[in-house]
Design a protein that fits this description.
Elements lengths: L1 H32 L6 H8 L3 H7 L3 H24 L5 H18 L1 H8 L2 H10 L9 H31 L7 H19 L8 H16 L12
Length: 230
């Protein structure tokens, strides 16, 4: 029984590693050729796998591209959870989380641009935003529901950091939903606006800017703030 368990664990690690290598290969191909021109043959060749092995993990190109987006959310979720579980003060955890997200999205910036040029991918984004018209396939709806769940889990992990700061007295008590909405909008808005600004902030500088401005609204003051919960 023990040997069987070890073999299963080893096989699962191998599968996860193969998926990682395939996704990384797909990213490189997309950056070279774009999503529309990418083929499964390209990805198999880039990953140094047989085409049969590639199809064992992903049935088609659309599924592979969807997994890239899902993987983006998974990586953010895992890092936020890691930061939350650390022994840092809540304010430092918040800063680490902002820094990671800005650094991560900047590293994926070219990939994001290539994906945004793909009509099929953008249609799923419109579904995600609730702006799609007409019939939507069950498969696409399930995918969008999965992405929404992953996003919610990321926000819940961030909310736990804010709750921790409020419980310790480091932050003043605020409405969590409003605070998370504001923080998400600020970080996402910065990532979008960054593409249009003449001056490009470095990740560290941008982190300090967002972190300090956000904390001005939640750090504890000597006097009660208007709207503060008691």
């Amino acid at each position: 029984m023990k040997q069987t368990k070890i073999r299963r664990e080893r096989e699962e690690r191998r599968r996860q590693e193969n998926r990682r290598l395939i996704l990384e290969a797909a990213e490189r191909v997309i950056l070279q050729k774009g999503t529309s021109a990418m083929t499964m043959d390209d990805v198999a060749r880039e990953a140094a796998f047989s085409k049969a092995t590639l199809y064992h993990y992903f049935r088609n190109k659309g599924e592979l591209v969807q997994e890239l987006l899902a993987n983006f959310f998974d990586e953010v979720k895992q890092e936020i959870q890691k930061i939350h579980n650390s022994r840092l003060a809540a304010g430092e955890k918040l800063k680490r989380g902002i820094y990671f997200y800005l650094h991560f999205t900047q590293a994926k910036e070219n990939l994001s641009r290539m994906l945004m040029m793909d009509r099929g991918f953008m249609e799923k984004i419109r579904i995600l935003a609730g702006n799609a018209k007409g019939a939507v396939s069950l498969k696409d709806r399930q995918f969008v529901d999965m992405i929404r769940l992953k996003r919610r889990e990321i926000l819940e992990g961030t909310a736990e950091i804010l709750k921790e700061g409020m419980a310790s007295g480091e932050f003043r008590r605020v409405d969590l939903d409003r605070a998370i909405t504001f923080l998400e909008s600020t970080v996402w808005g910065y990532c979008h606006a960054r593409l249009w600004r003449d001056r490009k902030y470095g990740v560290k500088e941008a982190t300090e800017l967002i972190h300090s401005l956000f904390l001005q609204g939640i750090e504890r003051k000597s006097a009660a703030w208007k709207g503060e919960s008691r």
